[in-house]
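User: Structure tokens for this complex, please. No commentary.
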Amino acid sequence: MDYDVIVAGGSVSGLLCAREIASQGHSVLVIEEDSEIGTPEHCGGLVSIMGIDELGVVPMRATLDNKIRSAAIFSPAKKSFSLDARSQKVIVLDRREFDKQIAHQAQTNGAEIRVRSSLREIFDDGIKTSEGSLKCKIVVDARGVSSLIQKDRTGILQSAQYEVYADWIEKDRIEVYFDQEKFPGFFAWVIPTRRDEAKVGVAGKGINAAVALESFLKEKGKYSTIRKVYAPIWIKGPIQNFVSKNIVTIGDAAGQSKPTTAGGIYSCGLGGIFAGRSVSKFLESGKSSDLLEYQKTWTDKFGQEFEHMLLARGILERLDNKSIDKMFESITPEIVEEISKEGSFDFHTISLAKLLGVKGSVKAIQAILGSEFRRLLT
Ligand SMILES: Cc1cc2nc3c(=O)[nH]c(=O)nc-3n(C[C@H](O)[C@H](O)[C@H](O)COP(=O)(O)OP(=O)(O)OC[C@H]3O[C@@H](n4cnc5c(N)ncnc54)[C@H](O)[C@@H]3O)c2cc1C
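Assistant:
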């Protein structure tokens, strides 16, 4: 055996998984097809401090780009409300640095990392890489959404995200724009990274994300582009089996990013940690039940929340622009205050239910039903 475990994919989930396995004294190799850990960065970097605390990472000065104080949400007709995000303690990470920080943790624990090495094929006793074959007991698939594209394309949206300089960026305010014609089933976002600098992105069903983003930016005002990223996002929730024979699937490859926002640093990172612990147990006991424990642990933590997110997504997909504008009208200052005070960034469906009016806002429910009727009549 060359290694106990080989992890394919050197990003947040793969590196955290390797860190856990190496910490228990097992031999683990991470292969990453890009030539640098953390690059190219395809992430907004938005995460809660509580979330990364649970991942066991304390952000360093180089990792932390910004702190967020509020979030402004806009309807298609530019009706808006603003949430006070201070109690949710949301920060913006530099993913390039963050991934390197976890790589360092994994390496310090004894993991080996190889860049420019790509997984080609998985066998019962090892893998074939771009550089030859390697033997191992367990293969961890942490290849992100690219692993899902081969299995199921239906849950994938195309996204585009540019890093831009512009004087209309508010340093500590995230902006989210809903418009079912421009970004069907998703939204546009502005995530400030520092003064006059932000990651601005869009995603949506069946759109040309680059064209949609450029016209969104033009509407916002003058800007200069520093970096462009195009990446698929997965919005269909977890896959059925995280473990199959000698293959353990984690992170985005297992559908562990939020179906509402596609945010995955926290839930994918924990997927990597839970998997790493189960794999370590399995290597000691040889019992497959120890390996299967990983799926149960992740589902106990996130299963119900992800189901609710899928429901919320189903509702959003059925709303048209008029209904969304109507819904915004029914959002009261009391609801906004309640969410600002009690809402959670990582488990946000209670806040969503409040906003969608499921709890108490008759007007909003009418808006949803109204749009369904219109759909039936066409
Ligand atoms: C535009 C955009 C914005 C986002 N913004 C946020 C945000 O603000 N907050 C948040 O929490 N989440 C955000 N996300 C989601 C977040 O980036 C992912 O959920 C998270 O990075 C998933 O981590 P992962 O390790 O599972 O997979 P990934 O980060 O996708 O990493 C997969 C790794 O596998 C490597 N790989 C692929 N194929 C192979 C192969 N054959 N062999 C070897 N290596 C391979 C890739 O190069 C990559 O390094 C965003 C995603 C996108 C696309």
